[in-house]
Structures are given as structure tokens and as C-alpha cells.
Amino acid sequence: MNKSNYYDNIAPIYDQTRWLTQTVAEAVADFIVELVGATLETSFLEPGIGTGLNVLPLVRRGYAVTGIDVSEEMLNQLRQKLNGTPPNLKLIHADASQLPFPDNSFDVVLTVHMVHTVSEWTAFLDDIDRVLKPGGFYLNCQWITPPARREFEGYFREILSKYEGSKPESKRVDAPIQDINVEGYLHQKGYVSNYLVAKEWIVSNTVEELLSFFQSRAYGFCWQVSDEIFDKKMKDFQEFCIRHYGSLERIISSKAKFEIWAYRAV
Question: What are the coiled-coil residue ranges (predicted)?
Fold first, then answer.
């Protein structure tokens, strides 16, 4: 399944199967506003805006936000949250790795789990540099997967690896920033950087809830096998979970983090 179809299909369940809640998003927005010294004149761009989880609080506070996403269905989810598209929000259905804006267009560019999806990441960073206003901020962010959920995913991948056509070695969502040297590249372009943790919070789910997320194919690695093999895999995984966790009602909890690598030209 190609990227656009994948995100179109998971759009209705995207928010509920992730771990960034509205309360956490509000706290992160507070952190970002203070970090960049935002006023209502500050303009934000998020390539890969999706359902707007990261920037919805900014939109509701009246900041000018532009978002690009490959999935029209994801953008529709954002529109539904706002009962339309307010004047301070501009949404573009397009390849988010290509920024169709004039030079010096935005005060802040925000990417979340985004850079690793771009084939030409250095060209993408060049484009971000181009559209940023002098003295603007580039915030390269990720939500760190809670360890208990990462462990759960690991068990799933082990079962997936038993079936032909699976790819259990594929990267976790919180691996890309370490694998791509954004910092080194931007330092060469005259940026200074700062690593920050915007928010830490506890994520709790029952085993049954997590199983239902996987059953709904809410994550990219769930599409690596055929429907027939997927059904067999899920049956095996549920049996494993009952043995390993003792009950599908067991609650597993651990800490998540919202990390920001903040870059600013000097």
C-alpha cells in the first residue's frame, strides 16, 4: 500500500491510536510559544500536518498556521475538529517534502516524525532554510514511544517475522532523528541548535486496547503482510499476549516524551 492510501485509511483512527493527548498538545504548544517568543504575528508551517495533533492548539489560539499533507483524509480529520477551516489556517494537499512557498515565508517550521520519510532529506532541509525568515526557528520534533508500548511492538514484530514477506527489522518511529544527521548538516549552514524536552507524561493502555490498535492496522508495519497472513499473525499475537501478560485487561504504563531539536540561524 502506498503512503497516501495508508494514511487515508488510518485517518479516522489516527488520533486514538497515538499517545499525544489534547492536554499534552496544549502543554507542548505553551512550550513552543515561549521557546520561539511567538506573538499573534508569528507564522507557523508544519509539513506533514496530518490530523493537526501537534498544531491544533496553535490554530485555536489564533496563530497563523500552514500545513501540507499527502493525505486528504488526514486533512479532513483536522477540518472536522475545527468545524471547517478558520481564516488563520491554510491547508495544502500535496507532497509535504516539497515546499511551494516564496523565500522567507515563515517564522517557525515544525516537523514531527517527518524528515526520515523524505528521500532527499538534505534538499528538504535546504527548502526549510529557504522558506524560513531571517532569525526564524526550525523545530525538528518527535514523540518518544513509551517503553511499554515499544516492548509490545517488539513482541508483535517477533511474531510477524515468522511469516514470509514481513520486515521486522524496519525502523521504529523514534529512530530517524538519530539516523539522519540533521544537526551536522544545519550546523554547516550556520545554525545553532538546542535539544529540549517539551513534555513528559505517562501513557497507560490495556493489552486489549493495544491489540485493537494493531488489529485496525493503525501503524505502517501492519501493512507489510497480506490480509491472510495478518489475520493469522493477530491470532498468534493475541494468544501470546494472554500467556505473557496474564490478562487482556492488564494495564501497561510507561513514560512518553516530546523532544525538540531547535535550530536557529545566527
Answer: none
